[in-house]
Amino acid sequence: MIAIGNDHVGFELKEAVIEVLKEHNLEYKDFGAYSSERANYPVYGQKVAMAVASGECDRGILLCGTGVGISIAANKVKGIRAVVCSEPYSAKLAKEHNDANILAMGARVIGPELAKMIVENWLTAEFQGGRHAERVALISKIEDGEVLES
C-alpha cells in the first residue's frame, strides 16, 4: 500500500499521482490534505512517514509547493529516506541506490505529466542492494547517532 500526503499546494497534483497508482493496481491510503484550503505540510509529512516507518504502508508519496519542506518533515521520522525529485532519472536512482521509501514532489516545480513520469520511474525501480545496501546501512547508523569514520 502506498501512503499519500500533501498540503494545500499539492492537493491538485495528487490526482495525477493517484492515476498512476490505479494504472499499477496499487492500493493507496490518502492522509490528506483533502482540499486546497491552507494546510501545514509538516503534519502530512509526518503522517505519511509514520505510516511507512510502522509498516502500515510500504512506501509513500508526498506533495507540497517544492517537495522540500514536506520531505524534511518526513525525514525526521526514524527509518525514512524521503527524496525530492523533479525528473524521472533521479527518482529511479533514488530507489535503486538509496532505497528511498518516500518520494516527494513540488506542485510549483513540475506539472501533472512530469509527475506521472517521476512516479512511474520510482514505482518500477528496485533497490539494487550490494554496495548500495552498505551505504544505506551507514545512513541508518547516522540516524542512530553513530559517528562514521572515513
Q: How many domains make up the coordinates?
A: 1
Computed Rg = 15 Å
Strand order of the largest sheet: 2-1-3-5-4
Instruction: Name the helix and strand elements from N-terminus to C-terminus, one letter apiece.
Output: EHEHEHEHEHH
Using the coordinates above, name the CATH class.
Alpha Beta
The largest sheet is: 5 strands, parallel
Backbone shape: globular
Helix content: 40-55%
CATH topology (level 3) name: Ribose 5-phosphate Isomerase B, Chain: A
Q: For this structure, what is the CATH homologous superfamily?
A: Sugar-phosphate isomerase, RpiB/LacA/LacB
Tell me what you see in this structure:
- This protein has 150 residues and is α/β, with parallel strands linked by helices.
- It has a single domain, classed as Sugar-phosphate isomerase, RpiB/LacA/LacB (Ribose 5-phosphate Isomerase B, Chain: A).
- Helices cover 46% and strands 15% of the residues.
- The chain contains six helices and five strands.
- It has helices at 13-23, 41-54, 68-74, 88-98, 112-124, 131-143; strands at 2-6, 28-30, 59-64, 82-84, 102-106.
- A five-stranded parallel sheet has the order 2-1-3-5-4, sandwiched between helices.
- Helix 4 (88-98) links the parallel strand 4 and strand 5 (102-106).
- Helix 1 runs parallel beside helix 5, helix 2 (41-54) packs across helix 3 and helix 4 packs parallel to helix 5 (112-124).
- It is globular, with a radius of gyration of 15 Å.
- The chain starts with a strand and ends in a 7-residue tail after the last helix.
- The model has no long low-confidence stretch (mean pLDDT 97).
